[in-house]
Amino acid sequence: MKAVLQRVTSSKVSVEGRAIGEIGRGITVLLCTMPGDTQKDVDWLAEKIVNLRIFDDEEGKMNLSLKDVKGSVLVVSQFTLCGDCRKGRRPSWAKAAAPEFANEMYGKFIEAVEKTGVPTEHGQFQAYMAVDIQNDGPVTLIIDTKE
Q1: What's the predicted TM-score (pTM) here?
Q2: What does the pLDDT look like over 57-115, one tens digit per residue?
Q3: Does residue 79 carry a catalytic annotation?
Q4: Of these residues, 38, 39, 80, 126, which one is catalytic?
Q5: Is 80 one of the catalytic residues?
Q6: What 3 state SS string does 56-99 have?
Q7: Kind of pairing between the strands at 62-64 and 2-15
Q8: Which entry of 55, 79, 109, 145 is annotated as an active-site residue?
Q9: What is the per-residue pLDDT across 3-28, written as a single tens digit (0 to 9) for each?
Q10: What CA–CA distance (Å, rounded) separates 91 from 71?
Q11: Within a 10 A sphere around the Cβ of 27, how many other Cβ atoms?
């Protein structure tokens, strides 16, 4: 799995002009599933995200986790993270998982985050979505469970 994490002051995902997921302070996760991803990847990534110390403490040092600041997570499926732009002018999507498998893993990831007790919102798989992200910092990280 690949994920882009953005520390946010707020974030919202809309489909056809209607907000379907919205959070305040927390992390927006843009998530891509790849062939070969397993429940182990799902669980590791969920645990990593909710415990990653990327929020400022009283001294302005990134020392607090999402759980520490009582933040939320907004998960948005984004197969384009697996786009390969090395050849030609059109990205190849060959590294992204097939839609049925990707949707299953996307759902499992959302469930894994919810099981940590962190409030979780999400987008709609395979929908055309508008994502409003108020990046805080900005702080943006990329995680690949295979690296």
Answers
A1: 0.94
A2: 999 999 999 999 999 999 999 999 988 999 999 999 888 999 999 999 999 999 999 99
A3: yes
A4: 80
A5: yes
A6: ECCCCCEEECCCCCCCEEEEEECHHHHCECCCCCCCECCCCCCH
A7: unpaired
A8: 79
A9: 999 999 999 999 999 999 999 999 99
A10: 35
A11: 28
